[in-house]
């Protein structure tokens, strides 16, 4: 990956996510796993993709996310905030 990226932190309840946006083709990796594998619920993935859909940048960035704390839904909320801030 390139050395240039946009970085932001998102938080929700006890969850915290560090999000990095690299120029690329639209892949999302969460804790070194594909996002659909890490967040198996369809509603969580819809939440995560919403900021990308709103700005029409879904296929413009590869996204690397490190998330910790809380449950899966709280982590998804932290990821959404991190992506929105990075955009």
Overview of this structure, please?
A hairpin with a 2-residue loop joins strand 1 (6-12) and strand 2 (15-23). The chain contains three helices and five strands, in the order ββββααβα. The chain has a five-stranded mixed β-sheet. The protein is of the alpha+beta class and 87 residues long.
SSE blueprint:
Layout: E1 6-12, E2 15-23, E3 28-30, E4 33-34, H1 35-38, H2 42-54, E5 61-68, H3 72-86
Parallel strand pairs: 3-5
Antiparallel strand pairs: 1-2, 2-5, 3-4
Helix pairs in contact: 2-3
Concise summary:
With 87 residues, the protein is α+β, with helices and mostly antiparallel strands. The chain has helices at 35-38, 42-54, 72-86, and strands at residues 6-12, 15-23, 28-30, 33-34, 61-68.
Number of contiguous helices: 3
Q: What general outline do the C-alpha atoms trace?
A: globular
Question: Which range best describes the helical content: under 10%, 10-25%, 25-40%, 40-55%, 55-70% or over 70%?
Answer: 25-40%
State the strand order across the main sheet.
1-2-5-3-4
Low-confidence stretches: none
Gyration radius, rounded? 12 Å
Question: Could you give the count of β-strands?
Answer: 5
Series of H and E elements: EEEEHHEH
Overall mean pLDDT stands at: 95
Strand residue content: 25-35%
**Euclidean distance between termini CA atoms:** 18 Å
Main β-sheet: number of strands, strand sense, barrel status? Answer: 5 strands, mixed
Label the structural class.
alpha+beta
